[in-house]
Design brief:
A hairpin with a 2-residue loop joins strand 3 and strand 4. The N and C termini lie far apart (about 75 Å). Strands 1-2 form a two-stranded antiparallel sheet. It is an alpha+beta fold. Helix 2 packs antiparallel against helix 3. The chain is built from 3 helices and 4 strands; from the N terminus they run ααββαββ.
Length: about 130
């Protein structure tokens, strides 16, 4: 009984001091990064395009603890929301970087995988990833 009471008092003490706010900050930053990714994607239509020069790729960082992976999404540079999409993607990467900094221990070694941006093409007036020409 004394042990249970002591554990309950310790839990209350942690809660009154804010508990593990680092973990809360990490989770909140992950959620913000996910929301920015969703926003960027919604602002990045793949069309219109008439030439590959009108296409680009948004770059996203996906945090996983102290590591991250990179992904890309083709979009049209001539769409009305292209600049806003690019800005939202930049904010997403900054938030993902912040989440990596806030990730709770343990810090484990990350596998380094370098993913190059996709080769783009304008196919049927739509920007998309295409197989690289050999």
């Amino acid at each position: 009984m004394t042990r249970t009471t002591l554990l309950a008092l310790m839990a209350l003490s942690l809660a009154s001091c804010g508990g593990d706010s680092g973990s809360d900050d990490y989770q909140m930053t992950l959620q913000q990064a996910d929301a920015k990714r969703t926003e960027a994607i919604s602002l990045a239509p793949a069309s219109p395009c008439n030439a590959v020069a009108q296409c680009a790729s948004l770059q996203f960082s996906t945090p996983a603890g102290h590591c991250s992976s990179v992904s890309y999404r083709p979009y049209s540079l001539v769409s009305a929301t292209a600049d806003a999409a690019s800005a939202a993607a930049a904010e997403q990467r900054a938030l993902a970087g912040r989440a990596i900094e806030l990730a709770p221990p343990p810090v484990t070694a990350c596998t380094t995988v370098i993913e190059a941006p996709p080769t783009l093409g304008c196919v049927a007036n739509t920007c998309q990833a295409v197989a690289p020409a050999n």
